[in-house]
Amino acid sequence: MGCGHKDDKASLASSQIVSFSHQPHQPPSTPASKEVWKKGGRMFSVLLAVHLALLACTLVSSGAFEKIAVHDYDVFFLLTVMMLTVIIWIIFYLAGTSRCPDAILCKDSHAGPVWLRGGLILFAIFSLVMDVFKIGYYSSFYSCLSAIKIIYPIVQAIFVVVQTYFLWISAKDCVHVHLNVTRCGLMLTLTTNLAVWMSAVTDESVHKAHSKLKKNVTEEIFRWLLKAGMRSSSAEECNCNSQICQIFKNGYFWLYPFNIEYSLFASAMVYVMWKNVGRFIDHHSHHIHHLKFRLFRRTFFVGIVLGLIILVSGLGVLILYEVQVNSSAESSKKSQALTMYYIFNIVCLGLMSLVCIGGSVIYRFDKRDMDRHKNPTRTLDVALLMGAALGQYAISYYSIVAIVASTPRDAISALNLTYALLMIAQHTFQNIFIIEGLHRQPPKEDHKHDSHQKDLYGLTFVNINAVSLRVPDSGSTLAPSPASGTEAIHPSDLVRSLTAPKKMNWRRKFLREISMFLLLSNIILWIMPAFGARPQFDNDTELNFYGDSMWPAIVDICLPFGIFYRMHAVASLLEVYIMS
């Protein structure tokens, strides 16, 4: 990637910015000269992404059915080609930007925060373990499989490593060379991650459908159903009788949720990079806040303790649910498991809703200003929260209609109805709380308050009445020292500096407690459906009302968005916690 082939418009805009840096009194350039990068190149890259996404979606969805002459290795071939292309482009990008000193003129301080990149690395590690299990599983009977089945996880592992390194070091970049090529490369990367996500979701859904079917029918009937119309993996036709093969098979399916979240996290970060291509940041209005993550400072531990109780209780409920529903055919144990699951979720969702309402009320009394600066990362966070919540909204409303219209109604139906209503309320109140927190200015360091207190006659502990006795009655200000260069201190400001921070600290402490409780609660609400606790498939009300084909399709489409919502809410709540 050479440095001498910048877009003309970008070069003109950069030259204008440089010239303005030497003339501080000259008015800034017009918005049109800075925003020209939003037009043609961006539209072309979007069209490229849309066509690739539609092609991948068509191929992945077609590969899920037996009667369509599209096999899983056809899907793997397309994904392998896309991942190899992205790897080549990332190497091209890293080599080109490192050789050109003017490639990255500024960085977006809001993009790619360290906790988001840390979560990306965590999911990347589990994705690599999943790829190792896949390689071990397919290698157990490579003689009866297509070679692409083994090549695909190898390429995916390389893709995860290269992309994670790329996002770790380049997530904040505002690139100003080869704008159109960079936009297309980033959109190709985003589309590849979404295609891998669609493939993983489809593969996991088919696997769970096969598992449910195997529990209820004999082996001969199961193989007949596969031939009749259900898609099976090509590995189903091979014998996996050894214990190590079964471990590999079960292991990589259990790790699918981490790979799904990795693809979505990477897609979000790549989208922010795409928005920042050619962007010029005004450092006078783009405030950079160096916030430190202090987990056990300025907290009462109430939110952490309650959140841990919810988390541990949820893990126990998940284990019992898996044992009683997925490992037992008795209807009584299934009813007990569903009752236990709904009661736990009703309590958890009710507490979360009340806490979110309390946090929103506290924000009403917060004196911090709203952050109205342009921030693509925050805009994407809000859009993802609102969009991903639609998946759970859809499931809840379908459940409400089925429960109200069905007869007879039993205790499980009443619990299911309460669960669906609370799910809608909790998503709504939590979105309001998170969006309020993301749009607040971070707390400012109280340098003035600290300096006022230090100048207060050198006292370590100060009584307000004692201060008022030492202040002249005339209301005059305390004269500053000529050598200090500080501004004069008014007595009312002096008293306010001692009282105001305490009130603000109480509000911030409560907001931190609320954020930590919601964070831990969202983690368990992500773990439960991601690792098998899905009452939508085990409750007969919706299945009988919508049918065995319509209801599973609704859940398979909407539930991945609900699962992603929980993990994205965790990342957003962590940011709200740090900003409080």
Structure description:
It is globular, with a radius of gyration of 28 Å. The longest helix is centred in the C-terminal third of the chain and has 40 residues, at 491-530. Helices cover 71% and strands 1% of the residues. The chain has 580 residues and is mainly alpha-helical. A two-stranded antiparallel ribbon has the order 1-2. The protein has helices at 8-21, 31-34, 40-62, 72-99, 114-139, 148-170, 179-216, 219-228, 243-254, 256-275, 302-326, 331-364, 376-405, 411-438, 447-454, 464-470, 491-530, 535-538, 540-546, 550-579, and strands at residues 104-107, 173-175. Helix 11 packs antiparallel against helix 12 (331-364). Pfam families: Otopetrin. InterPro entries: Otopetrin. Belongs to the otopetrin family. It is a multi-pass membrane protein. It is found in: Cell membrane.
Q: Outline of this structure?
A:
The protein is mainly α and 580 residues long.
Give the SSE map.
Layout: H1 8-21, H2 31-34, H3 40-62, H4 72-99, E1 104-107, H5 114-139, H6 148-170, E2 173-175, H7 179-216, H8 219-228, H9 243-254, H10 256-275, H11 302-326, H12 331-364, H13 376-405, H14 411-438, H15 447-454, H16 464-470, H17 491-530, H18 535-538, H19 540-546, H20 550-579
Antiparallel strand pairs: 1-2
Helix pairs in contact: 3-7, 4-6, 4-7, 5-6, 5-9, 5-10, 6-10, 7-10, 11-12, 11-17, 12-14, 12-17, 13-14, 13-19, 13-20, 15-17, 17-20
